[in-house]
Amino acid sequence: MNVITKFAEGFMNLFQTGADTFISWVTGIVPVVLMLLVLMNTLIMMLGEERVNKIAHASSKNIFTRYLILPFVATFMLGNPMSFTLGRFLPEYYKPSFYAVVGQACHTSNGLFPHINPGELFIYLGVAQGITALGLNQMDLAIRYLLVGLVMNFIGGVVTDYTTKFVCKQQGITLSKEAKLVG
What we know:
This protein is mainly alpha-helical. It contains 7 helices and no strands. Helices cover 73% and strands 0% of the residues.
């Protein structure tokens, strides 16, 4: 009987932990994401969707702006998960690659800019603690992490472009490489 009771208590604790996590999201990350969404949509309305589309259109034409500059700016300015929303302005063909790059950039920029992905900061800090214990400079690690991340994220975007091309050909579909400009 003791085993059944312990199992039932553990089972209910699992759900209590899930509920506690959910409540922390409702009072923590959800309002932040909501406010960032409001800010981004306000900026888009103030600048005009046509201008934002033109910027995205211009950045989508160049592989370096598409997979180096735009994802870095998106993650730096908006953080995770809001940075993904800038992909809505890109042509359909480049969206999978943009999302792949941004998803990786949210981690590789975290050492220098912890506001980008605070939920995952513990991973970087764990590595940084080991570096510090070795007597090495933590800032050197952060800069290297960012620079290697930029290169690897760029490569990830290019590889995802090839994957997208392969899947489109395999499925017999065509995705637009042109941004749809308003007006």
